Amino acid sequence: MGSRGLDGIIEWKSDFETGIARIDFEHKIFIELLNSFKYEINLKRSDEELFRIMNEIEKYAEFHFISEENAMRRMNYPAFKEHQIEHFELLEKFNLAKFKNCNFEGFHTFLKEWFLRHTVESDIKLKLYMLENNINLEDYFYELKI
Question: Which of 5, 34, 65, 116 is 20 to 30 A from 25 via CA?
Answer without folding.
Answer: 5
